[in-house]
């Protein structure tokens, strides 16, 4: 499935965001995306949902400016991809995959914390 086809289900699946004051927000306020999401129907759908979007346009803009916001996600995905069991789904049962993601995230967090404490 192309990434652009998964955008709507992904945004719909975001749980309500807790806040200290006021009602819970039901959807994100802003979305940053690369040129793979530059389709008129997606921009209209996001606008109808009340989500401001910053999508690089095909043939007009470079994706460099979006890199400032996307690098956190890309870095985290690359850390998770460094774990061999997550890089390819070796497990036969689908229930085991989220458990290994949790273990990998814990190990990554521990390593980051340990490196900050020793520095």
Notes on the structure:
The protein is mainly alpha-helical. It has 2 domains: 3-55, no CATH class; 82-118, no CATH class. Helix content is 48%, strand content 7%. The protein contains 5 helices and 2 strands, in the order αβαβααα. It has helices at 7-12, 40-48, 67-81, 84-87, 96-118; strands at 30-33, 52-55. Strands 1-2 form a two-stranded parallel ribbon. Strand 1 (30-33), helix 2 and strand 2 (52-55) form a beta-alpha-beta unit. The chain is globular. 2% of the residues are buried. The mean pLDDT is 79. One of its GO terms (molecular function) is DNA binding. Residues 18-30 have a biased composition (Basic residues). Residues 1-32 are annotated as: Disordered. This is IS5 family transposase. One of its GO terms (biological process) is DNA transposition.
């Amino acid at each position: 499935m192309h990434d652009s086809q998964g955008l709507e289900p992904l945004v719909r699946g975001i749980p309500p965001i807790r806040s200290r004051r006021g009602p819970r927000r039901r959807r994100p306020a802003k979305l940053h995306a690369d040129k793979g999401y530059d389709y008129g129907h997606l921009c209209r759908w996001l606008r109808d949902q009340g989500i401001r979007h910053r999508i690089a346009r095909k043939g007009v803009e470079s994706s460099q400016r979006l890199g400032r916001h996307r690098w956190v996600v890309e870095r985290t995905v690359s850390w998770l991809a460094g774990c061999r069991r997550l890089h390819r789904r070796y497990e036969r049962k689908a229930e085991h995959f989220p458990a290994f993601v949790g273990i990998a995230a814990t190990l990554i967090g521990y390593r980051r914390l340990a490196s900050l404490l020793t520095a």
